Amino acid sequence: MKYFAPLFIAAAMMASCGNDGKSPANDSMNADSLNVSYFGDTITPDGAISAAELKTKLGSQTSMNCKVEGTVESVCQKKGCWTEVALNDSETVHVTFKDYAFFVPKDASGKKIIMEGVAKYDTTNVEMLKHLASDAGEPQSEIDKITEPEFDLVFEASGVIIKEK
Description:
Elements: H1 4-16, E1 36-40, E2 49-50, H2 54-58, E3 63-75, E4 82-86, E5 92-97, E6 112-124, H3 126-135, H4 140-143, E7 150-163
């Protein structure tokens, strides 16, 4: 009998884990929940702006909390620890994940993404640019051409939704 109490407590604890009762809002992004994946904080697509609007919305602010919808251009092929999301036909925004707490699938290129977090302009030093180029699989000859830091728009996501094609 003394062994049943710990088993009962363990079973009760396990039963209380799992779904926290939150579910994403019903909309086109999760109409087919089998084709949607969530990473990091649980977010909904509600209120997302298009990636094409991001620079305009940020304007002269130093940073902005926002939710952005776009298309993944590329993903870190080592572990999915960063991604590039298209802003338009010629520009992307570099996306990292808050506190390095989660990653996205390495095969996410071309998929629709909604990300919530902080957009800002920041300087990326030469060492980091070379590291990112290496992660992206660039040849050493291209990596060696990186000699100047870049000041550009970046995004730190706390939560991400990726929709399969």
